[in-house]
Design a protein that fits this description.
Layout lengths: L11 E5 L4 H9 L7 E5 L7 H11 L5 E5 L6 H7 L7 E5 L22
Parallel strand pairs: 1-2, 2-3, 3-4
Helix pairs in contact: 1-2, 2-3
Length: 116
Amino acid sequence: MQVLTAAPALHSLTLRARGDVADILQFLFHKHVDLRKLVLKHCYLGENGTDLFANIVASYPDLEGLSLEYCEPLTPAGYCRIACLQKLSELSFSDCEVHYVYVKPLETNVCIREHL
């Protein structure tokens, strides 16, 4: 029987060619690991990558580095979650598969008011 443990001082995590990324990160979410850099390469993000990124943002709000290389699937909503990481200073995407479910054109309304 293998028991998984996490080092509380873990600040950087790299996962390569994993199909169980969501399970690994779910385990770390509950271990209070202060993750600062997350590197995912050739990983499957689960059936709903958006939920995974919501958990990443909630669990690691101080994440400074995020790299996604050849990861799938990513939804536009998942990308929007990444923007919530306020301390993110390093972001890398490389050949990520993006599923566009719905794209809405940008709407801009301008109102000019003159005071006499």
